[in-house]
Specification:
The complex is a heterodimer of chains A (391) and B (317). Chain A contains twelve helices and 16 strands. By secondary structure, chain A is of the alpha/beta class. The radius of gyration of chain A is 21 Å and the shape is globular. The model of chain A has no long low-confidence stretch (mean pLDDT 98). Chain B has twelve helices and eight strands. In chain B, a hairpin with a 2-residue loop joins strand 7 and strand 8. The chains are: A alpha/beta (391), B alpha/beta (317). Chains A and B meet through helix 3, helix 4 and strand 9 of A and strand 1, strand 2, helix 4 and helix 6 of B.
């Protein structure tokens, strides 16, 4: 039986972590994810979980301790944001390279400088090629659900998973959500039984060797293959989850897209805002739609490209800038897939909401208006746009 | 039971041959010595920082780590990595997921770069948190893996590739950072400094205390490097003995804050006896550089007297 609750995003995720009851949680506080280690410390202090909590002295040590604990054979989680994720970056690569199913919760926040505590996606986008699976969440329910599914996805794919949701907008806003029963979560995730681990009393192992010209490349190819295979694993786990909860998740979500003429691709909470704009436009007879990737790693390039093929104009929205004199990361990746698929539709890029700049339905409306112009003229005057910024 | 070197070295080693460490390096005997202090029935998880030891002992698909599990993740985090493994052990034992009666000990090995410099924060954090781990620094006084660059453990005036003895600057300008004392200030139950002397008796005994003391323990082992110090490879034991007889490297331990100087040379040799056989100090024997030797002697005397005083004071209380 589902339990109705009113929880903030961080509360929802901490609740999921409580129900998962991992062997080890190692974390260092940073706004806006700080509440997670706080809530979790309370669970530990009150004996609600049997987890060992490691209050490390830095995020670098948080991920290092997670790696040690996961290699030892434990089920392991951490949470961070922004500079914390940047500080972990070295170890994120090592977690994935060692094929450890660590779960990292990222309440997305801007990267300095200037310092800013509010939401954009520059932290997780900066970690996009570390070998972590990245799942993005629109709201508190998705943050809760993805945290639980992440455990199973990570352990099956032998890859670490990053669950990303918007700092403050999702982490601190309270919403009505549905929780699973503790037993349901326990049964859904099952026991973690690693094949090889440091503490295996029957078989000692060496992990993290020096691999030279004769083997390094093969390790990295296997890692890349695992990311390819994780696509099916995510779908599989999501369908198992749907059977228990009735909530369906794919690799991405479409909203009014099938017959749309103008569409946008957008991640996380802004997709919720954009859905309202789509509703307004649909009420006026405008064929607007959107696509929200759930998995950015692995990004379902072929599937997404196929969904976009009937559009007359497309805007790909990035809440992170690549500072590459061209475009944001989502735009680069999706247009690259479109080129390979010989899909030639007018496509523009919007960078929006950096450092928590508010993005309202009216702002999204200006994007669709631009797309309608492009759809009728067939012409693009400028590829990259900045939404709602003082020039 | 009296110390018997034959018995000790006949124990099955957990760090076996085939590794690629240099002849005359102090690290392998250090590692073997520490691991021999493990009870035969106990298992161990070893965490190593990036460095000579790690790149030479576990080259895929080979490993020199036997009858223990080994993990290397990065340079600056041997302590944090080990702290995670130790907590997983506690957690999985508590929850019954780890079904075994075998006791596992947790030991980190890192050089002075991975310990005093880049790994300092991770080490300090793990010690402060009170994990049941033993951290061993094999201290060769420079970044030897990358070719003898200065570290904060490099002795005053030593010639390294980033503190070269030049016409204007006479080698490293700073004194060594004294990490052993900084570890004492972490209020951990056991801190010790040792070297490869006296048929490894000191190393063996201190390793055993470090591994079998409950809580975080720290062991600093002088680990001569023939490449960086520039001495003949067969002189490892000789150079180690000179380090302790000159009191350049005092042997002592601190048990719950109480100091014990474990070796007081009957005749304390002048510091130049330790410096002269090493080419990294060649320039300080040039005419006009006598002041450097005098200064080093003063530094050694000051530290030695400090230790004797600490021994007296902490045993009095």
């Amino acid at each position: 039986m589902a339990i109705r609750e009113r929880l903030s995003g961080n509360e929802a995720v901490a609740t999921a972590m409580k129900q998962i009851n991992p062997d080890v949680v190692a974390a260092y506080p940073i706004t806006p994810s700080t509440e997670i280690p706080q809530y979790f410390s309370n669970f530990v202090a009150n004996g609600t979980v049997s987890t060992e909590f490691i209050p490390v002295e830095s995020e670098h040590s948080a991920m290092s301790a997670c790696i040690g604990a996961s290699a030892a054979g434990g089920r392991v989680m951490t949470a961070t944001s922004s500079q914390g994720l940047a500080y972990m970056w070295e170890m994120l690569n090592i977690a994935a390279g060692m094929r450890l199913p660590i779960i990292l919760i990222d309440a997305n926040r801007a990267i300095s400088a200037p310092i800013n505590i509010h939401n954009d996606h520059s932290d997780s986008m900066g970690a996009r090629d570390t070998g972590f699976i990245q799942l993005y969440c629109e709201n508190n329910q998705e943050a809760y659900d993805n945290t639980i599914m992440a455990v199973k996805i990570a352990e099956r794919a032998k890859l670490p998973v990053m669950v990303c949701y918007d700092g403050f907008i999702t982490s601190h806003s309270v919403e009505n959500i549905l929780l699973m029963e503790d037993e349901e979560v326990k049964n859904f995730i099952g026991e973690y039984t690693p094949e090889e681990y440091l503490l295996n009393p029957d078989r000692n192992i060496s992990m993290g060797p020096l691999a030279l010209q004769d083997s390094f490349f093969e390790f990295r190819k296997q890692l890349a293959d695992a990311m390819v295979e994780s696509k099916e694993i995510i779908k599989e786990v999501s369908s198992e989850f749907a059977k228990v909860t009735g909530r369906n998740y794919g690799l991405y979500e479409k909203y009014m897209l099938d017959d749309a003429e103008v569409g946008i691709v957008i991640l996380n909470s802004s997709a919720g805002t954009a859905k309202d704009t789509v509703d307004e436009l649909r009420a006026k007879g405008v064929k607007a739609g959107l696509l929200k990737p759930r998995a950015f790693r692995p990004l379902p390039y072929v599937e997404i490209t196929n969904e976009l093929k009937n559009l007359k104009a497309l805007a790909i929205m990035d809440k992170a800038d690549s500072i590459n004199a061209y475009s944001g990361p989502l735009f680069s990746e999706i247009t690259s897939a479109m080129y390979t698929a010989k899909l030639d539709i007018p496509t523009i890029n919007y960078v929006y909401g950096l450092g928590g700049r508010d993005v309202k339905t009216d702002d999204i409306l200006t994007v669709y208006e631009k797309l309608l112009q492009i759809a009728s003229s067939g012409k693009i005057d400028q590829v990259k746009h900045y939404l709602n910024v003082e020039e | 039971m009296a110390y018997n070197i034959k018995e000790i070295v006949n124990k099955e080693s957990r760090f076996v041959s085939g590794h690629r460490m240099c002849a005359g390096c102090g690290a392998p005997p250090t590692i073997r010595g520490v691991l021999r202090a493990l009870k035969e029935e106990d298992n161990a998880v070893v965490s190593a920082a990036t460095g000579c030891l790690e790149v030479s002992s576990c080259i895929y698909p080979y490993t020199s780590w036997k009858n223990c599990s080994f993990i290397h993740t990065a340079f600056e985090n041997a302590a944090a990595t080990l702290s995670g493994a130790e907590k997983a052990y506690n957690s999985m034992k508590k929850s019954g997921k780890l079904k075994t009666d075998i006791e596992t000990k947790f030991i980190a090995f890192a050089g002075d770069g991975g310990t005093l410099d880049i790994g300092f924060q991770s080490l300090s954090g793990a010690m402060e948190r009170g994990h049941n781990i033993t951290y061993v620094c094999y201290d060769n006084g420079a970044y030897m893996n990358t070719g003898t660059q200065r570290s904060s453990s490099t002795p005053h005036f030593a010639d390294t590739t980033t503190s070269p003895a030049g016409k204007v600057i006479p080698g490293k300008l700073q004194q060594r950072k004294d990490l052993t004392e900084i570890m004492v200030k972490h209020n951990i139950p056991y801190v010790a400094q040792t070297a490869l002397v006296f048929n490894l008796k000191d190393l063996t005994e201190k390793s055993e205390k470090a591994i079998y003391t409950d809580g975080p323990t720290y062991l600093s082992v002088l680990s001569p490097c023939p490449r960086g110090w520039v001495y003949p490879t067969e002189e490892l034991a000789v150079i180690s003995k000179l380090a302790v007889d000159t009191c350049f490297w005092p042997l002592y331990e601190v048990v719950n804050g109480v100091y014990k100087v474990t070796y007081k040379p009957a005749k304390k040799l002048p510091i130049e006896e330790f410096l002269r056989p090493q080419k990294r100090f060649r320039h300080i024997f040039n005419e006009g550089n006598e002041w450097m030797i005098e200064e080093m002697q003063k530094e050694v005397d000051k530290k030695w007297n400090y230790l004797l005083l600490m021994e007296e004071i902490t045993n009095r209380v």
